[in-house]
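Lab channel / #folding
Pinned by the channel admin:
"Please post every new chain as: sequence first, then the structure tokens as a reply. Keep commentary short and put observations after the output so the thread stays searchable."

First post following the new format, from NK:
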Amino acid sequence: MKHDVFISYSSKDKSVAIALCHALEQAGIRCWIAPRDVTPGQPYAAEIVNAIREARLVVLIFSIHSNNSPHVGNEIDKAFNQGKIIIPFRIDKSELNDSLDYYLARKQGISFRPRSRKLETQTVH
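Reply from TO:
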């Protein structure tokens, strides 16, 4: 296994995803994040599927943007069907869409309030 964590996020939340990736890697937790870790010349979708398969767990940067992203939905579906641990990292107060609610309704997650720089754990639903 090349990495411990697959980071799923909307490209509109890229700065948060990169910051989280950096923090985890500084703590010795190996991450896979697109587009950084996509092998040049390989099909993007296949690289994502392989990265999810190799990961121990998936961290979802959850926001209004990821909630509306079909690509994030596909990643969470793959992770769920492969029995991966999925940890939602909520960065706004958006409600889960029906698809994500199906996968995440009973998951314990982490909420981050950027202005206060405060982390809180809570059930996602």
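NK: The chain is about 40% helix and 25% strand.
TO: also worth noting, Residues 119-125 have pLDDT under 50 and may be disordered.
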